[in-house]
Amino acid sequence: MKTAMYCNQCEETVANKACTVRGVCGKDSELANLMDELKEYLKVLSLQINDDKEDKLEEKRFIMNSMFKLITNANFNHESIRKQLLIAKSYTKKEDVTPYYEANEDLNALKSLIMGGLMGISAYHSHAIHLGYEDNEIHNFLVDVLATINDVKELDVLLEVSDKCGYYGVKVMELLDKTNTTAYGNPEITKVNIGVGNRPGILVSGHDLNDIEQLLEQSKDSGVDIYTHSEMLPAHYYPKLKKYTHLVGNYGNAWWKQTSEFETFHGPIIFTTNCIVPPKANASYVDKTYATGNCDYPGFKRIKELAVGSKDFSEVIEQAKLCQVPQEIENGEITGGFAHNQVLALADVVVENIKNGSIRKFVVMSGCDGRKKDRGYYEEFARTLKDDTIILTSGCAKYRYNKLQLKDINGIPRVLDAGQCNDSYSWVVVAMKLKEVFELNDINELPISFNIAWYEQKAIIVLLSLLHLGIKDIKVGPTLPGYLSETTANYLVEHYGISGINTVTEDIATFG
Ligand code: SF4
Ligand code: SF3
User: Fold this and answer.
1) Name one Pfam family in it (predicted).
2) Could you tell me the CA-to-CA distances from 128 to 174, 304, 314, 402 in Å, in that order?
């Protein structure tokens, strides 16, 4: 049966099957179909340049940025996607393409997983490029897979490609880690204020650290304060960003609470990437909301670009000066900044606490938060874990438990936040170090378990990266991706020990 749209790329998809009338995220069928068309053009263009792609940097950047625009909650602007389609048509000299649907459910499952992984890779690569680090091998991998994926009919081949996605996932997270730490220094333990100051503010959401740096520099003498929102919280952990005294705090929680929290913020809001939630019809903040980079929403203003990578935030700063001071919705502090360099600096203390039995276990709870009720599991799980267990987190999943005030273990906080979802890379570095210190043969022998929450495609590339590194028995929730077929789900269970979540009591019993 032909449906108005067909999208099942995120965790929120209707009945864990597909959005067929309108997306739960707010994407309408017209936009979903434009996005499907763009996806197809990217494959055609990739095929066209694949044999001779070495110096096709312009096309490769176009493909990467387009893939980023397709991520859940990044771009809701029909015009923005239409513009990409026009460019794709001019590159390919094709007036139309037929969106491709894979009829075989097992092939479709793996192709969907791979496409999700490629979107995640594209997002992270795009952030690294914004700070001047580009990897042609990552570009080439993207083009190579897009060029060939429709024609692959063997599950074995797709399993190899999804493993390669994991390889490039590690590579791109490593690149972004290098990019961010070279530009802004290594994250360090930082207490972040969650209350408000007494000056008007600008709230910055999304993942792009270069955007917030440019804003901080341009607003430093303006009398306006800068606040982070959701995935921008880790900006506070970087020495070269935290030196700005008008970077005063983090306002609100994970992305899905924005429609109420943006109302009380009063000042302008800037989206540097996902996750955007469509504002309610009576929202008061739309005319003060800006988007930049690959994210967009109809009615939001754009940040002016002066040259590639250089942005002009003067309009938003001037608008902020006229706004009321933010309304306090919380107060106190949260602590973060436990990326690999900081944790390894504390390695002796951590190892000592493992050896004397004070720390018995680590649970990596990285990934995404989401608005479904069953996400309450993660808060309860964090609360219920025994006192000798440390939670290692990254991504917006942390908002379910980073304000719980769990007791320290000999001065070590029980929730260690490394940063954004891409900073899951830090936990890989830390795990490798512990494996070396304890002279183990296999990373799975460490007292580390993985309970990953996913929502969108960046969590998928994190997951594929962990699988590529050989990490076993990962729990993925709150549900497994809806596009997985029985055969592919069974394969993941048998080969990697992946499982969905159960009740908190059952899972705590499994994790020990
Ligand atoms: Fe549905 Fe998610 Fe697709 Fe939005 S991105 S249409 S919520 S599956
Ligand atoms: Fe969150 Fe969107 Fe995924 Fe970077 S902001 S993790 S959901």
Assistant:
1) Prismane
2) 10, 20, 24, 27
Q: Tokens standing for 487?
A: 């055969």
Residue 23 near ligand 1, beta carbon < 6 Å: yes
Tell me, in angstroms, the distance from the centre of ligand 2 to residue 207's CA.
9
Closest residue by Cα to residue 120 from 83, 157, 173, 161? 173
> Which ligand 2 atom sits nearest the alpha carbon of residue 273?
5
Ligand 2, residue 207: give the atom nearest the CA: 4
| pLDDT over threshold 70, residue 122 | yes
| Cβ neighbours around 481 below 10 Å, total | 23
Angle between helices 457-468 and 424-437 (to 10 degrees): 20
Which residue among 396, 398, 454, 465 is best mutated to probe the pocket of ligand 2, counting the most ligand atoms within 8 A of its Cβ?
Answer: 396
Q: What pTM was estimated for this model as a whole?
A: 0.97
The vertex-245 CA angle with 234 and 233, nearest 5°, equals 15
Taking Cα atoms as reference points, which of 155, 288, 321, 111 lies closest to residue 222? Answer: 321
In whole angstroms, give the CA distance from residue 374 to residue 371: 9
Cα–Cα distance between 342 and 187 in angstroms, integer?
7
For the chain, the C-alpha Rg in angstroms (whole number) is 22
What whole-number distance in Å separates Cα of residue 69 and Cα of residue 80?
9
Task: Give distance in angstroms: CA of 68 to centre of ligand 1.
Answer: 15
pLDDT in the model for residue 99: 84
- How many angstroms separate the alpha carbon of residue 269 from the centre of ligand 2? 17
Which ligand number lies closest to the CA of residue 20? 1
Whether 458 lines ligand 2, by a CB cut-off of 6 Å, is yes
pLDDT band at 307 (very low <50, low <70, confident <90, very high): confident
The domains found in the chain, sorted by start residue, are: 14-183 (1.20.1270.20), 190-321 (3.40.50.2030), 338-511 (3.40.50.2030)
Which are the contacts of 138, defined by CB distance < 8 A and separation ≥ 6?
A: 121, 125, 168, 171, 172, 175
Backbone angles phi, psi at 174, to 5 degrees: -65, -40
Q: Tokens 């935030």 label which residue?
A: 313
Mean pLDDT of the chain: 96
Residues at the binding site for hybrid [4Fe-2O-2S] cluster are 207, 231, 275, 368, 396, 421, 456, 458
**HSE (side-chain half, CA atoms, 13 Å) at 59:** 24
Calculate how far, in angstroms, residue 116's C-alpha sits from the geometric centre of ligand 2: 14
Q: Distance from CA of residue 300 to its chain's centroid? A: 22
Rounded mean pLDDT, 157-186: 98
pLDDT band at 375 (very low <50, low <70, confident <90, very high): very high
User: What are the phi and psi torsion angles at 75 (to 5°)?
Assistant: -140, 115
